[in-house]
Design a protein that fits this description.
Structural class: alpha/beta
Strand order of the largest sheet: 8-7-6-9-10-11-12
CATH superfamily of the largest domain: NAD(P)-binding Rossmann-like Domain
CATH class of the largest domain: Alpha Beta
Oligomer: single chain
Bound molecules: (2R)-2,3-dihydroxypropanoic acid
Shape: elongated
CATH topology of the largest domain: Rossmann fold
Number of domains: 2
Distance between the termini: 30 Å
CATH architecture of the largest domain: 3-Layer(aba) Sandwich
Helix content: 25-40%
Strand content: 15-25%
């Protein structure tokens, strides 16, 4: 086999088998992520590596991998990779956008509905045996989604897919991003206006030095007290301690979160103590169909780059 590649996780669909047709594959078969030492040992003579977002691809790893031509991540996000350093060594870095857009937007909308209409709280109430009064006019009142204002931070693929869903709910959609996108028909506003006017603030930005802790106490205090924050991008876009404080102080009405500053979180995490918060375990792209498509794209990216051809998606 001309190429040697390291794959740090089993992937759904038969895509690792496809990869074996063109490369010698060193696959981590464990249920938990590949130990760092296992990866560091294997990359020494690898031409390519296929990683997931839990594998840190930093200078130490890149320096070890003297033959590396391509880093293919099985994710759209690439904040776990030192892209600039990889590029300085002539290594191509690829990712899996597009194929996960709709699944992620579905989850974001699900989170938004769940927190606004107190769906998880209601489910918990019944399971804990606390639905003990007949129907009443003011029981478990939530926030109306239909016709409300949705503020999207980041107007990339996922932001647009969320906006399309919002149109079905007759929502007013406003957005903030680094630049105005002339090709979309939604209202472009500055971040403060978005925070002030939105009933739902949805974060869909990448994590990078500019978006790290973008939403902190000061920003949260600009939101309406009746508004909700929804985050399925990366946990560190929100300063989590500040969010907990804002929720406790009633600065905002609630939050729905799929991502956290340090994952996984446990039941003792401060966010898990708050009733007006919906939590999911980083499952934005977790549908069978999407995860198989991600595997296909990650493997194809790897093979194309190994063959010196243009991958489907090089990170921007
Ligand atoms: C990604 O791809 O970056 C998501 O967080 C997981 O699919």
């Amino acid at each position: 086999m001309p190429h040697k590649v390291v794959v740090t996780r089993r992937l759904p669909g038969g895509w690792v088998e496809e990869l074996r047709k063109v490369a010698e594959v060193d696959l981590w078969e464990g249920e938990s992520p590949a130990p760092r030492d296992w990866i560091l040992e294997r990359v020494v003579d690898a031409d390519g590596i296929l990683v997931t977002l839990v594998d840190r691809v930093d200078r130490e790893l890149i320096d070890r991998a003297k033959r590396l031509k391509v880093i293919s991540t099985y994710s759209v996000g690439y904040d776990h990779i030192d892209v600039a350093y990889a590029r300085s060594k002539g290594i191509t870095v690829t990712h899996t956008p597009e194929v996960l857009t709709e699944a992620t937007a579905d989850l974001i909308f699900g989170l938004l509905l769940a927190v606004a209409r107190r769906i998880v709280e209601g489910d918990r109430l019944i399971r804990e045996g606390n639905w003990n009064k007949p129907w009443s006019p003011e029981f478990m009142l939530g926030k109306e989604v239909y016709g409300s204002t949705l503020g999207i931070v980041g107007m990339g693929r996922i932001g647009r897919a969320v906006a399309r869903r919002a149109k079905g709910f007759d929502m007013r959609v406003i957005y903030y991003s680094r630049r105005k996108h002339e090709e979309v028909d939604y209202e472009y506003v500055d971040l403060d206006t978005l925070l002030r006017e939105s009933d739902f603030v949805v974060l869909t930005v990448d994590l990078n030095p500019e978006t790290y802790h973008l939403i902190d106490y000061e920003k949260l205090s600009k939101m309406k007290r009746t508004a909700f924050l929804v985050n399925a991008s990366r946990g560190a876009v929100v300063k989590e301690d500040d969010l907990v404080r804002a929720l406790k102080e009633g600065l905002i009405a609630g939050a729905a979160l799929d991502v956290f500053e340090r994952e996984p979180i446990g039941k003792d995490h401060p966010l898990a103590q708050l009733p007006n918060v919906v939590l999911t375990p980083h499952i934005g792209s977790a549908t069978r169909e999407t995860r198989e498509r991600m595997a296909e794209v990650a493997v194809r990216n790897l093979i194309l780059a190994l063959e010196g051809r243009k991958p489907l998606y090089e990170v921007p």
